[in-house]
Amino acid sequence: MHPPSRLLRIAAPAELLSLAVLLANLATVHQRELASVVGPVHGCAYLMAVIGAATTGTGTGTPSGPATDGARSDRTAVLLALVPGAGGALALRRLAAGRARATRGGDAAGPRTEHAPRAAPPGA
Questions:
Q1: Cα–Cα–Cα angle for 89, 90, 95, nearest 5°?
Q2: Is the pTM of this model over 0.85?
């Protein structure tokens, strides 16, 4: 599992922070100038978060073809990134959790082991 891209690590908090500023502005003073500046920043951060989630783990490939080392983007992370506002942060969290599972030795999709049957209680 590849780490989240630098683009996603920067865009996710920027998306969330810009949304908070927009909502606070809307709930309080509603300055149009502030909204006209922060709105495009939020939109750009949203698009960068989606692109960052989609390109994380895809690899660069070779001139003869795409990367074949099993690297691919996490579809769930990409779908989470499409959620406006907090999607970048959700995708970042999913990718970080997948990387943590991979470093612990488990599969990125979770462990695929059979559960042992429960032992009988004492005295049964």
A1: 95
A2: no
